[in-house]
Amino acid sequence: MLEYLQIFGQEIYRILFLLIPILVSVAMIVWLDRRVWGLVQKRRGPNVVGPFGLLQTLADALKYIFKEIIIPASANKTVFILAPIVTMTLALVAWAVIPLSEELVLSDINVGILYLFAISSLGVYGIIMGGWASNSKYPFLGAIRSAAQMVSYEVSIGIIIINVLLCVGSLNLKDIVLAQKELWYVVPLFPMFVIFFISALAETNRPPFDLPEAEAELVAGYQTEYSGMMYAMFWLGEYANILLMCAMGSILFLGGWLPIVDIYPLNIIPPPVWMLLKILFLFLLFALIKAIVPRYRYDQLMRLGWKIFLPFSLIYLVLTASFLFYFDKLPKGNF
Amino acid sequence: MLIHSIFFYFFSIIAIFSSLMVITSRNTVNSVFFLILDFISVGCLFIMVGAEFLGMIILIVYVGAVAVLFLFVVMMLNVAEQKQSWFIGKKSTHIPTGLIVSVLIFLELLVVVGGWKYKDNLMSSSSLIFSKISNTHQLGLVMYTDYILYFQLAGIILLLSMIGAILLTFRERPGVKRQSYIKQISRDPKTSVELKNVQSYEGVKVDD
């Protein structure tokens, strides 16, 4: 029994070692997002609390902790409280399989990419539960919009993942990264990378696809009735999800922890730094797009997902498969 | 082994409990939530016996897509609390039908499981190799060699039912203005803007 407890303790230690950096980097990334947004609009952005305003998010979190949590009288209380917890948990749980380097991964499972895809497709529940449990019109409309949007864009993300898997021949995230040693998949699969990026924007409800919380029409969408720490949890979960999507993009297309080219000054930089740099690069794109692109109309969003992205990624899948088959480059598998 | 059985009983108790809650809870939205819990725990059971691919697929397909649509429908239709029940209140008319269907499904399961036991060459499939290769690879090897015909047939049936569902719900409404992107982009000032010399007290005709 003592043995089990020891293993248990070690696991908890490892999990905390992963979780705390993620939470801190989520706080930093919120600051970065607001800062980039401000700079694009020729404002200064948050720059008062701490050096360069770095501690702004911590100050905000402190404020949220001390605010009262208001639960509407007509809300379904259990589901109402459960919704932000679900969002936050799912956003953090997915990080278990993300490899930061060849050794630095919490659990190296065979079906890593499927796990990531499953967790990111469960993310819709937090939103739909929050919207329904609020028992109010705006949150409900926001939740319905968001559910439809996330389910539609998941389809094309799934096909893009299949595209990459065809080239790798394994569902393990480490194998996916190691298969890109010669050539990052962003080069041969560039159109897929673009579609993945746009679908990731839609999947995380970021502008220009932030219709679930379109403030001009729906106040704040599914978050309207939330306050205090529960609102903050939605917010943190959302940013953790964005980071997760960036990590997924860098693993699938940008070669994970691998350096750009394997030559002297570049390959002494430790692998986790490369991984973080790539995540940061993708996040900067996310932040810039928030600042410079106007919001889509809802029917345009659906049209883009179903009538353009889905057929295009299917055709590209057929092309990739035929190319690999014709030039006899299909992965052989290790058996 | 002890930990393994503890987890097994944990997930199976949750699965049984939540499937009971699906049919007994009064609020339809709650029963969909319990259905989701049921799917998740069944997925975990699959992962526990080593069928990691199937477990993940259950999570992706059932929890990530099918249950979302259930939830969507239940919320949109705003189904009120279930008034009819087994024992109290008005007797339901659905119960006999439901009983017949569930007895049929039970018998079918019996036949399938029974037949399975007496099928001797199930394990001697030509391409099923027991080795260290991953579960996903094994599934693929069997599915795309021995059972390719059934696999493709299942795919075609699913495609047909999808097309059928779209056809059944498709309704062409007259007088709906649609946005045509190609038309919008390919417009040019020469054909779309016209300069007219308007006579005073006569005006121009619009919309003819």
Characterise the protein shown here.
The complex is a heterodimer of chains A (335) and B (208). Chain A is mainly α and 335 residues long. Chain A has one domain. Helices cover 67% and strands 0% of the residues of chain A. Chain A contains 13 helices and no strands. Chain A has helices at residues 2-40, 56-65, 77-93, 112-122, 124-133, 137-168, 173-178, 190-203, 215-218, 228-252, 264-267, 271-292, 298-326. The longest helix of chain A has 39 residues, at 2-40. Chain A is globular and about 65 Å long. The mean pLDDT of chain A is 86. Chain B is mostly helical and 208 residues long. Among the domains of chain B are: 1-82, Four Helix Bundle (Hemerythrin (Met), subunit A), CATH 1.20.120.1200; 122-170, no CATH class. Helices cover 65% and strands 0% of the residues of chain B. Chain B has 8 helices and no strands. The longest helix of chain B has 26 residues, at 52-77. The model of chain B has no long low-confidence stretch (mean pLDDT 80). Chains A and B meet through helix 4, helix 5 and helix 6 of A and helix 2, helix 3 and helix 5 of B.
The total of beta strands of chain A comes to 0
Largest sheet of chain B: none
Secondary-structure element pattern of chain B, one letter each:
HHHHHHHH
**Main sheet record of chain A:** none
Percent of residues in helices of chain B comes to: 55-70%
Mean pLDDT of chain A: 86
Low-confidence stretches of chain B: none
Number of domains of chain A: 1
Strands, helices and their partners?
The complex is a heterodimer of chains A (335) and B (208).
Chain A: H1 2-40, H2 56-65, H3 77-93, H4 112-122, H5 124-133, H6 137-168, H7 173-178, H8 190-203, H9 215-218, H10 228-252, H11 264-267, H12 271-292, H13 298-326
Chain B: H1 2-24, H2 28-48, H3 52-77, H4 94-118, H5 135-143, H6 148-169, H7 181-185, H8 189-192
